[in-house]
């Protein structure tokens, strides 16, 4: 396994490594607003990037890999393992969306539903890893995850000029990797649900701390803490974090459907919710990127 660091150089090398395995997701521009549709990535979210990075840069034992997930990471690891011919066991909590659970099953992984929240599934996965010798693939707190998710920033920079990028925050692997790529060349704004203010509380405390884990996006944006590896990157490169209400996230889901015919999951629509709710107010000339990061959701009737 090669030694990695979360830098622009390593993110660029990671992009070349995973390019045969991931999609270059499209962007849609509307004036100074640019949406990047990462919900069209393999497995339905950006998580496939980190999953392939981990599986391609680490030694996978015969017993395979194990991951805990609210759903998106599990689907991504299951998909990557299927494509690379590896075994996978995925632990998810009971709050995971049915669409995500079915996607994991479709990819052939051994699925275990354990506990009510992500933290419960994580504890069960760690126990299994210790007992079996399976390789743990963490949802956000590993260099492979940060490097893989950082390739979203590399792609977006090539596709559209930006002044600001809005990124939903759960465990922080996505915003950490993207922030490491841009290195303050643009403003990176984190967006969290009011009921899961994980990075907000960490920045306030000066370290990752336990936070509430509720709200409609709890299956993707509500771990107990942000990752320890991403936190210094957030302190250094993230401009600020704004909080959005569940109603604003629902409104963003509906607006994405009405405007673009995009069916985003709640976590995937959170970044756009910051604009709609005016929690982030761009200047008239500001070129703003919005990352629609996941679409693993059942059909929603917005009428």
Say how many strands there are: 10
Major β-sheet profile: 6 strands, mixed
Round the mean pLDDT to the nearest integer and report it: 94
Strand portion, in percent? Answer: 15-25%
Order of helices and strands: HEEHEHEHEHEHEHEHHHEHHE
By DSSP (H or I, 4+ residues per run), the number of helices equals: 12
Task: Just give the CATH class of the largest domain.
Answer: Alpha Beta
**CATH architecture title of the largest domain:** 3-Layer(aba) Sandwich
Query: Rough shape?
Result: globular
Helix content: 40-55%
Report on the architecture of this protein.
This protein is α/β, with parallel strands linked by helices and 303 residues long. It has 2 domains: 8-45 and 142-292, Rossmann fold; 48-136, Rossmann fold (3-Layer(aba) Sandwich), CATH 3.40.50. It has 12 helices and 10 strands. The protein has helices at 8-18, 47-57, 72-84, 98-106, 118-132, 143-159, 173-182, 198-205, 218-221, 231-237, 246-260, 266-276, and strands at residues 27-30, 33-37, 65-68, 88-92, 110-113, 135-136, 164-168, 187-193, 240-244, 288-292. The strands form 2 sheets. A 6-stranded mixed sheet has the order 1-2-10-7-8-9, with helices on both faces. Strand 1 and strand 2 form a beta hairpin. Helix 1 packs across helix 6 and helix 2 (47-57) crosses helix 3. The chain is globular and about 55 Å long. The relative contact order is 0.16. The mean pLDDT is 94.
